[in-house]
Design a protein that fits this description.
3 helices; 78 residues; mainly alpha
């Protein structure tokens, strides 16, 4: 008689074989390909690219604020 661990491993193996042989694996592959194609049309950016742009905008905002302060100083002196 098999112990419960062996029975579970055998059951898991059988389920994996069934899934591999079933159309579910093909459906999953096709859905992933379809979604990837759809996303590529949306002109999306990666999270890394987005974070880089946010950092650049933050730096630009700091520069604009500094320049505005300088302009106010010049206006006050004039």
């Amino acid at each position: 008689m098999k112990n419960s661990s062996q029975m579970f491993e055998e059951f898991q193996k059988n389920v994996q074989e069934l899934i591999a042989k079933s159309p579910a694996a093909d459906i999953e592959k096709n859905v992933k390909a379809f979604m990837a194609q759809g996303f590529s049309r949306l002109d999306l950016v990666t999270r890394e690219e987005f974070d880089i742009q946010v950092a650049m905008v933050d730096k630009l905002r700091e520069r604009v604020d500094a320049m505005e302060a300088q302009i106010k100083e010049f206006e006050n002196k004039a």
